[in-house]
## 1
Amino acid sequence: MVEESKKRRLEIVQTEVKDERCSTFVLNGEDHTLGNSLRYMIMKNPEVQFCGYSIPHPTENKINFRIQSTGSPATDVLRRGLAELTSLAAHVLVTFEHSVEDYKSRTQDDEDMEIGQ
């Protein structure tokens, strides 16, 4: 058995059918957190006919991820989905950090007002 650290993060399952619009990917070291988020982002693409994932067994730390599109190759659809998910995560992080700073400044203002009374 190959050690977890030596496995590739992403593998493409080879099939006899050579249709680039349909592919199954194996994402090693991932679980429902990435699987469901990525599936949601990819399904927003109007070219996507089907997108789903499964975890082969609860003890296996990998996802089988299937994409079928009507136009672009599945690898391009996956790249686009990953890029959009990364962008969304960055936006959420920035929004969260701004909210924390706003909260801290309001809390500090409230404390300053209580001390001044």
## 2
Amino acid sequence: MALRAAKWLSGPVRNCWQFRGFSAAAEKETNDRGIVKLGMDLTPRRSDLFEKLFMKGMGVGSVSNGESVMERAAYFMRDGCHDDSSAIAATVEKEYYNCRNNAAIWDMSSFVKFSITGPDALAELERLASLKIDRPVEEGKLVYCCLCNEKGGIEADVTILRTGEESFYMVVGAELLSHVESYFEDHLTPGADIDIQNISDNFGVVCCAGPTSRKVLEAASPTTNWDNESFPFGHAKEITINGVNALALRVNFMGDLGWELHTEMSNLPLVYDAVSEAGAPYDVTDAGYMCLASLRTEKMFLHWGKSMRVGVEVTGDISPLELGFPVKKTDFIARKAIDALKGKVQKRLVSIVPKDDTDIRLSGHEKLMRDGVEVGIVSTTAYSYLLGKPIGIGWVERTDGEPATWKWVNDEAAEYSIELKDGSFLPCTVQKKSALDPEGERMRA
């Protein structure tokens, strides 16, 4: 399995612009190689953990939020050098297994974070979001939902926590700052008494995820009850850790037991130190964003983008119905469009798994075939170390005008395959749920 993984990650390293030190020339090279827009601030942003993590062997990757660039960990080199793709492959594999079998720590401060307040804040969020936001403050319930447009499309997937009668904390993917700001400008009710502030640089995030993460956090913050009854999945709680306050969210992008710890940026090193020291007896290690490609694809966690490029599953043209997202509200911005689509959905998002173990490398946007006919694309690919094969997320679309029901998608007589670049075909299966842990038992453990 290790050899297959090494082959899978060999060649040019993806998802990172470069791996380097602090030289100004290298910074310019990083910026020049990124895809930027006119007027974007090219001065790299960094969390208060950057230098500490850099000294621990961090390979530096970058992400753009549409307004600026933030540098963050791609991986942590333990043995070898940063220009050795096989050494990078080995460390990414180790980080992956540490999360799935033990626990790992990420600096996820690149998340976009908004403070939303005002007398009309609740009404506006209820009008725009796909799920109910009006929940008791004391419940601490996290609402993972979609912000939609009038055509029934998804403009962003977000996590919202009600923090007061007229205040909310919203977390969005790292690339979506400018897009979400534009969305609010275009869709808020004129004259609404609501204040939306980008507080991304004010707060940092340490995430600890993996089967032993509860034990680690019990040691890091012993005054907090981390058990399932006291701290269920999908909830948030204010905690004290290493003498500072933090907001613990029981969610993560890895698809395992774990928590995100949100705290003031200046307190981030204290929170990180507490988690890192508590994790030492359990051999918990740092991890970067490269191993997230495998972790999130296994769990079918989605990535929104302005266009359907490689690594993107959702755009503003995709409906929650096509994703299989619940929409239970009777009155919100996309209700009419979604009702019109009921019973007429012609494409479905699926998890794609080759039938046999293979070390064939998938690069994304391969054609998905059904009985020899093209029916969709493989939008995202990654190597699943636990399954021992490449996997993907993609779309199955019906082209005969009939609805793409799950009965049609799952027809046992249908033969699915992936068309490879050399023209050959890789037999595969498609399914509604994720390739790994489809019932979400690991996250709720």
## 3
Amino acid sequence: DKLPLELQYLDDDKVIESDPDIRKMLLDALLQLCATKHGREILRNKNAYIILRELHKVEKDREVLLATENIVDILIKTEDEINLENYKNVEVPEELIEKFQKMDEEYLKE
């Protein structure tokens, strides 16, 4: 009921985008929206999580799965848990950046 009306009653001819690069770019755009509190609230209010959950069930491409999970990890947190207006203002230590990159690389190898 919170999903946009055009997504509630999709015709049978509607399919998931076939190109994984385009799916990844679309997810990257959603991740950019997750950077700000306002963007996160919009995505939550539009129930983006439900769509991402369904994508995750059928997705085979590891990069797309990782991008989906990164967004979900943000959206499932409350704003009290996040306690930031904008993720882009956070300074991440270099050693943590490297650690996260290695974690992503390992995930993509699985």
